[in-house]
Structure formats: C-alpha cells, structure tokens
C-alpha cells in the first residue's frame, strides 16, 4: 500500500526549544525536492506492499537549526501495512530519498541545483544529530542515474490513486522495492536502508545532501560527496523525528540556574555600592 502523506514544515528557529509536534497525514501533492520515506518487507505481512510517506521539502531539513520531535505519526499506517510487530521485524527496512529535477538547464530552487540528491544511510552506532555513517560519494553518471530513479519513484507515488492512501504493488515499476534490490539502492552500489532487527530504538538514518554542481547552490559543498544534514529516528509507536546537524542545544537546568544566580549576585553588588 502506497500512502501519500504530506507534511509542510514550519521551522521554529528558537534557541533551546524543539519544534512542536505538527499535523500528520495532510493530503497534498508531491513535488520534486520532497523527501520520500519508504518501507518494504522482504517477507511475511506486507511483503507485496510499499509504504511511502512524503516528508515535505528536503530544504526544510537541510536548513533546520532545531530538532523536530514529531515530524509525522505513522504508527497506524505501519500496523495496518506490516502488522503490530513491525518495530521488531528484521525483514522490514526503511530509507529516505529526495531529488531536484534531472534537467541540468533548470535553475536552482531553494539553494538546490538540478540533480541535487538527498540520501539516507543507516547509523552504525545510534546517536541522532551526530554523523554515525559513511557519507555517500556518487560519480557524475551515478548522480544522473540515481536522480532519475528517485524522480521515477516520485512519479509512481504521485500517480497512485486516492488522496491519503493508495495501493501499489511492490513489484510495480518505480516502486520502493524495485529501486532497492538487495544491498543496491537506486543504482548507488550500496544501501540507503536500515532495518528493525534491533527494534525501533536500534535504527536511525543519517541524511546526506549530494550536489551535482555548486552553480546556484546555497550552501555550497564538495560536488559528489554527501554533506551530513541530520538524523531521522522512529519510535516504536511510529512517530518519526529529526535531529538536526546544527541544532541549538537546549540549556541545561544547571546552566539556567547559574545564569539566574549570577543575575542575583550582580543586582546585590549594585545595591551594596549604591
């Protein structure tokens, strides 16, 4: 079952405060540049179905400066597609991709030039907000092929009938499963996926941005080499979260107490001098 769920991010750039949980399951239209979160099962319940969730524009995560505790809640969708034990299934995988247009004559949009790809990689040690995987390195032809495959997935997703949900067989052209064969994802020669063998708390996905050119790019980077943008997590209840790479840390109670005490002492000294 291919679920079409769009989430528009409203980034709250407030030091020390995570963004509040935002509405889920908004039925909207996929556009190039959106991140697509995909699930596939290689056996048992849901093996013929792919669950795809539209997480909104990749640039919203690229530019995030605070963590997002709840990007979207898809617990009920995961249960209905893969069963109540989805969070402990070693045969269930998840990953994230996104891409701008594959036309090199297109202007950059939101600081992402044509063939800018977003690719996930499973963390080897779970530490959201800290890079714990190897950055993707993609050749010139590889960037062309991978972008075409990601946009093909987007076409299949957008063409699926229905508003909030649609059924798409995992063997159909452009499906998540056909783009993730064994350990090869989107012709990258490696996998973008993690699995739930160690439970939901035992898997997290680092997000990388891979530029095809620096013309029009903002921020710029090393062409073909992924830059770490943050980490996606998912709870056993199906709540997807995002830990930004450049999140402003929340002040600890000790620091806040010290600041408050310092202010009181300063006021006292001024009173004595007066």
Describe the structure.
The chain is an alpha+beta fold and 274 residues long. It has one domain. Helix content is 21%, strand content 24%. The chain has five helices and 13 strands. The strands form three sheets. Strands 2, 3, 4, 5, 6, 10, 11, 12 and 13 form a nine-stranded antiparallel beta sheet that branches. Strands 1-7 form a two-stranded antiparallel sheet. A two-stranded antiparallel ribbon has the order 8-9. Strand 12 and strand 13 form a beta hairpin. The relative contact order is 0.20. About 11% of the residues have low confidence.
The end-to-end distance, rounded to whole angstroms, is 74 Å
Task: Round the Cα radius of gyration to an integer and report it.
Answer: 21 Å
Number of domains: 1
Counting helices, strands and paired strands, the structural category is alpha+beta
Number of continuous helical runs: 5
Beta strand %: 15-25%
Give unreliable regions as ranges.
Answer: 4-27, 252-257
Helix content: 10-25%
Strand tally: 13
Shape: globular
Mean pLDDT: 83
Q: State the major sheet.
A: 9 strands, antiparallel
């Amino acid at each position: 079952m291919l679920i079409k769920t769009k989430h528009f991010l409203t980034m709250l750039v407030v030091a020390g405060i995570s963004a509040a949980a935002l509405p889920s399951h908004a039925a909207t239209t996929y556009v190039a540049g959106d991140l697509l979160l995909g699930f596939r099962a290689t056996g048992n319940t849901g093996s013929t179905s792919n669950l795809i969730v539209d997480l909104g524009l990749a640039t919203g995560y690229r530019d995030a400066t605070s963590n997002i505790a709840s990007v979207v809640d898809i617990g009920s969708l995961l249960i209905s597609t893969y069963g109540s034990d989805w969070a402990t299934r070693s045969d269930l995988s998840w990953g994230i991709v996104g891409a701008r247009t594959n036309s090199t004559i297109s202007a950059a949009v939101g600081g992402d030039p044509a063939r800018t790809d977003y690719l996930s990689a499973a963390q080897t040690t779970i530490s959201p907000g800290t890079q714990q995987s190897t950055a993707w390195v993609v050749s010139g032809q590889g960037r062309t092929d991978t972008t075409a495959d990601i946009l093909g997935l987007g076409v299949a997703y957008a063409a699926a009938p229905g508003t909030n949900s649609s059924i798409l067989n995992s063997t159909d052209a452009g499906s998540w499963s056909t783009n993730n064969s064994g350990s090869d994802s989107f012709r990258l020669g490696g996998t973008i996926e993690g699995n739930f063998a160690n439970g939901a708390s035992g898997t997290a996905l680092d997000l990388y941005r891979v530029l095809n050119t620096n013309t029009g790019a903002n921020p710029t980077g090393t062409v073909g080499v992924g830059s770490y943008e943050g980490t996606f997590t998912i709870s056993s209840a199906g709540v997807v979260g995002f830990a930004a790479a450049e999140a402003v840390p929340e002040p600890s109670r000790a620091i806040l107490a010290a600041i408050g005490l310092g202010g009181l002492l300063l006021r006292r000294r001024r009173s004595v001098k007066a």
